[in-house]
Specification:
By secondary structure, the chain is α+β, with helices and mostly antiparallel strands. It has helices spanning about 1-55, 70-75, 145-165; strands at about 55-60, 65, 85-90, 95-100, 110-115, 120-130, 135-140. It has a 5-stranded antiparallel beta sheet.
């Protein structure tokens, strides 16, 4: 009957709002739960690369140099999607290896967002002790892979949300 339908419609209107809100809250939480570990894993990869470079530092008398064969550098820079840049500078700021145009290295900052050659990057740094003072090592990677993972996560969530809402 018409009266029954109008009650149904009112109930539906009354339920849709809260349902959509609950769904959005659940989606946001799921997104954060999926994205945060991915972000941490990417950052850990950057830290590992910086640590690998630190392990190649060699000390001769008061001089510090880095033993970085071409193959090792190629492995570090190899990436199917992202570009990787790095710089190793001695205490006087002299470039021991890597890219001369690398952004200033702040070893205390931890992973930060920066820009390199006009593209947004995620950058991490560490300071390695040496006889002549701290050697600063910075590694940066473009965000393309991160954005792919983020987009894939969002697409999956939107699909799930549409299904749940229906």
């Amino acid at each position: 009957s018409a009266g029954m339908n109008s009650i149904r419609l009112r109930l539906l209107k009354w339920l849709v709002g809260p349902l959509v809100l609950i769904n959005l809250a659940a989606a946001t939480l799921t997104y954060l739960l999926a994205w945060t570990p991915a972000q941490l894993a990417f950052d850990q990869g950057l830290s590992d690369a910086a640590a690998a470079l630190a392990a190649r530092l060699r000390h001769h008398g008061g001089e510090v140099r880095i033993d970085l064969p071409r193959e090792a550098e190629q492995v570090l820079r190899a990436g199917d999607v992202d570009d990787t840049w790095f710089a190793v500078r001695d205490a006087r700021g002299r470039l021991l290896a890597g890219d001369a145009d690398f952004p200033p290295i702040n070893a205390a900052a931890g992973p930060v967002d920066a820009a390199m050659r006009g593209e947004p990057v995620r950058m991490t740094a560490l300071a390695a002790a040496s006889a002549g003072g701290a050697v600063r090592i910075g590694v940066a990677k473009t965000l393309r892979k991160r954005q792919q993972v983020r987009s894939a996560t969002l697409r999956a969530l939107v699909l799930l949300e549409v299904l749940f809402t229906l």
